[in-house]
Amino acid sequence: MSKVNILIIDDEESVCTFFRRLLQRKGYRTVTAVNEEEALKALDYGTFNVAMVDLKLPDTDGLTLLKHIKSRQPACEVIIMTGFSTIKTAVQAMQLGAYEYLEKPFEDIKLIERLIEKASAVSFQGGKEEDEEWSELAKSMGFLVGDSPDMRRLVSLAYKIAPKDISVLIQGETGTGKEVLARFIHTASARTEQMFIPINCGALSDNLLESELFGHERGSFTGAGNMRRGIFEMANKGSLFLDEIGEASLAIQVKLLRVLETGEFMRLGGEKQIHCDVRVISASNVDLEDAMLRREFREDLFYRLNVVKLVIPPLRSRAQDIPMLAKYFVKQFNPTLTLSDEILDLLCQYDWPGNIRELSNTLRQAVALCDDKVILPEHFSGKLTASKPRPISNGQAAVASPAFAEAEPASSAPSLESFWEHYGTPEALSQLSDGELTQLLNSLRGLEANLYAVMRKKGLSSAGSEALRDSEAASIKRTLLQHRWNITEAARALGIARNTLHRKIKKYGLQNQ
Fold it and tell me: Residues in domain Response regulatory (predicted)?
């Protein structure tokens, strides 16, 4: 490797002196600058492999210098130096092309030396890492990243912020793999040996969600026969994944904010504060900033969760990865089958409103229908040859299925009457495949969430205890149906005792139909 040239930009002379002495002992050539004028002059007269840039300077900022460096010397890798209070801006710098950021004060000299060595190696490779550090980790946990530049940049950023122990907000459409990315961040962090606990905030009523999050004391409510720890307590020293955080009520949001601010909470019915050390990774398929404007999401909680925001691209924007994903799923479902070239082309042309989850379910169905060694178009029940569905915003899955797409003209939107004509009876539903039934169920859940949002805007939603009662009854009934009315399994899924579930079934008049 040729001689490494490093530019150090910091308004503190002591910092410049520290890095100059440290790096010259390693054999690097160094140039220092204390302001923007000196930095630009150095860039005009020299070529650098690595630039160490302070985020706060008297006459400019690190983001501005980052743009100057990348425009003049694209192969120069930039390391941002920052205090903890500016980590969010430092992460923004990484999204703009910075290689990494360092927190002040500098305590781990070996870490700094390794970081500069890796950054200089990337510079000599033309800005590309031949073998990303995260690739083996992703492969070991079955995380298929693919070749899409947007996706690779996202995972690279996720890997770099994973050890920082800061809150992460993941946004993306339904089915893009938000939980997979959350697990990757946990696995790449110092908490990897501890528990990772996911919970869907939109799947439980307020009462059930609060008990699930914080636990309860014996006798705190009817049916609470024993003390039960919540997942904040169980995830101590580990990571907690709050999926669909936008579905949590304002009352739950207040309690979450307190835990994030103080690291303490009380069980339901408890009197003692319990301390927890939990890294929170949250996810949403709706725009939380829009929800804040509608006063449906607390602004203070948003900024607590949104220290770093990672946005997963939809599958339709990374079509180059579809063949790799498709072959992987087919191999998982049946290693003896292969996909024809015609099918791979059709898969890449389809819009996949349900993203990776829809792709997986569709291929599972095709594998089940294939009696030969090669999967052909006829094994997809006309889905891929029908008109392509329009992408639906806010992560809402398409309601149309293959049979429905064929029944309706491509240019017209399906009416409510025609929808229920196709799907309103058990006889019609029984004609759908397992994959289509799963897709339809996921679509209806997304539709339900959007219906509630529109009804709230129009003042049509039920208020007070009636809404809570309906929500809890619906949640219980849905769980019972999913577990085929197995009381033990349903109670375990709901986090309540069997006798409590029996009482609620009687209270709400639920019946096994």
Answer: 5-119
Query: If one looks up domain 315-449 in CATH, what number appears?
Result: 1.10.8.60
Residue 174 contacts residue 396 (beta carbons within 8 Å): yes
Helix (H, G, I), strand (E, B) or coil at 102: strand
Burial class (CB within 10 angstroms; exposed 0-12, middle 13-18, buried 19+) of 38: middle
User: Cβ distance 491 to 497 under 8 Å?
Assistant: yes
Provide the CA 286 distance to its chain's centre, in angstroms: 12
pLDDT in tens, 212-265: 898 888 777 767 778 888 899 999 999 999 999 998 889 899 999 999 999 998
DSSP 310: E
Q: Are 208 and 475 in contact (CB under 8 A)?
A: yes
Query: Whole-structure pTM over 0.70, yes or no?
Result: no
- The structure tokens listed for 510 are 């639920």
What is the chain's mean pLDDT, rounded? 81
**Alpha-carbon gap, residue 268 to 270, rounded angstroms:** 5
Domain ranges of the chain: 5-124, 145-311, 315-449, 462-508
Q: Angle, to 10 degrees, between the axis of helix 36-45 and the axis of helix 62-72?
A: 10
Give burial (CB, 10 Å; 0-12/13-18/19+) of 81.
buried
Q: Coil, strand, or helix at residue 509?
A: coil
Token digits for 410?
A: 């491509």
Topology of the domain comprising 5-124: Rossmann fold (3.40.50)
What is the CATH number assigned to the segment(s) 462-508?
1.10.10
**Pairing of β 228-229 and β 215-216:** antiparallel
| Closest to 442 measured CA to CA, from 318, 331, 353, 374 | 353
Single out the residue of 98, 157, 442 nearest to residue 313, CA to CA.
157
DSSP state of 61: B
CB 163 within 8 A of CB 190: yes
DSSP state of 502: H
Sheet with 77-82: list strands edge to edge: 29-33, 5-9, 50-54, 77-82, 100-103
List 51's β-bridge partners, or say none: 7, 78
Are the C-beta atoms of residues 371 and 379 closer than 8 Å to each other? no
In angstroms, the CA 100 to CA 198 distance is 29
